[in-house]
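[Q] Does anyone have a clean structure-token version of this?
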Amino acid sequence: MYSQRILKLGAKFEGRLEAVFLAGALDYVKYNEESLALEIFCEHICEYDVALSVDEFKEIQELALDMGFELGNAPFKYLQALTKTEE
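[A] Here you go.
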């Protein structure tokens, strides 16, 4: 149900998040583990300090909410600190 949104989001991070980590997280989509895919993807973003645009941050938040995640829980609560403010 959320597979295409997750894969499309992940594609935006090619070259910014190591390919092995990106592929490892997104592979869970193939096994209908969409929630796990998004959670691990976001954990990798946090762990490797990948900068997010405001739009990427909002997209992740919307997807996480749609999937039933609590934004106040890890890893989602740490993403805002990685978000670049537009100047």
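[Q] Thanks! Anything notable?
[A] Residues 34-47 form the longest helix (14 residues).
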